[in-house]
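Figure 2 data, in text form.
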Amino acid sequence: MTLLLRDEDLATAFDHAARGYDALVAANPGYHAHLRRSARRLGLGLPRRGEGLRVLDLGCGTGASTAALAAVLPGARIVAVDASAGMLERAAAKPWPDGVTFVRAAAEGLAGAGVEGPFDAVFAAYLFRNVSDPDGVLTTVRDLLAPGGRLGVHEYTLGGRRVDRAVWTAVCRGVVQPVATVLGDGELYRHLHRSVVEFDTADRFAGRLRATGFDAVRVLPLPGWQTGITHTIVGRRPRTENGAEA
């Protein structure tokens, strides 16, 4: 996969886009409702309301995914992480319940930023197609999870049909990119389009989870215009590995 933006260049582009990011995603029908749905899917099988849990929100952006987690698991302690200082500043400035903390770190550099497990659950929204080494980040996430801990990925992962790609391209070129260009963020949203069409299909990404050692992996569609475009992929770190406690 060859993306327009990588690593520091991508974080810098998100820094610039942070000022208008919330307004832009608010215009996306179902954006926040879909995040909450994926958070609920992650929460299935966890203690009700998340009491006593530690949850990592990996790639929190301006906090939309954090808000979804806080609504679904209000009793959990949430560590929200992002590589973009601009996005994280917007997120941290919002009102949050006790137990929500924000840390600036790239997904590949969590240990260096003091983000340590074990976590009972990890949520990653719109993250994996933006990292240079998705398999490496999946390995890090698996190792941060407690045995039996759950991963929920909310991502633009196309379903594999030609119509899915066609709808995604039409929305990006006809709506998203023209608005983003006016805001001065055209390069970032050209990256958005390309990062999705060049990334895994939903089933292929689920295969990455299995290959990295996750079990109970499921691919779940989301409704509305994003059917076949956005999915929730959930998995679990096994309680035992090779017959021994993980």
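Caption note: The radius of gyration is 17 Å.
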